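Please go through the sequence line and token line underneath and see whether the fold suits the sequence. See right below:
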Amino acid sequence: MAVLELGIYANPHAPKPIIERATGMLWLLPAGHSFCDIIPPSRIYQPFPRRIILAGGDGSIRSFLQMMHDRKEVRPVGLLPGGSQNVLYHQLENLGLKMTAREFLERSPNRRLRPGMMNPFQNS
């Protein structure tokens, strides 16, 4: 199976506007790049796509990232915030890690984060 360029994953119970925003991002892909349908994380394609966009709130994003960690998958991950608090998104934004969807798709971010960076109560 060929590796997909982009996978967009959303909680199947996400509000309709979140799914519509995620769907609207597909036109940003350069011509000829493949992508998977917007699907719940439980239906992950193997192998993982080269880039992943997670649409949803902190809980959905956390569970997907945990699954990636458990499978030892390392991929650029973009967030499309859609929860009530979006704490993780705002913490990443404060670290200067925010970029547009087009920037995310046009270049492969080469930054790694340690999970401890996101927890202000955990000592490094």
